[in-house]
Amino acid sequence: MPQTASTARLEARISTDLHAMLKRAAEIQGRTMTDFVVAAVQVAAQQAIEQAEVIRLSLADQACFAQALLSPPQPAPALERAFARRSKLLRTE
């Protein structure tokens, strides 16, 4: 028996002008109003999430980051020991 995706209901009060605009836009695209609104909301949500996940750096932070990539600090002794253990574990004879 095939399973269907679960759904949730969303309700919002909007002005009659906005309702008319959404209805007109949906008709222009040959969609139902529900389909039009769901698609628009999904795009807006994805953009909001993507923008929130982007790391923004000041010019000074960018320069500091680039310098760390170009001239990384010397590895700490614990890191060197960890790499040695890793190499030993991965060595195939």
From TrEMBL:
Transmembrane segments: none annotated. GO terms for biological process: regulation of DNA-templated transcription. Keywords: Toxin-antitoxin system. SUPFAM superfamilies: Ribbon-helix-helix. InterPro entries: Ribbon_hlx_hlx, TacA_1-like. It comes from the Bacteria. Belongs to the TacA antitoxin family. This is DUF1778 domain-containing protein. It comes from Polaromonas hydrogenivorans. The lineage of its organism: Bacteria, Pseudomonadati, Pseudomonadota, Betaproteobacteria, Burkholderiales.
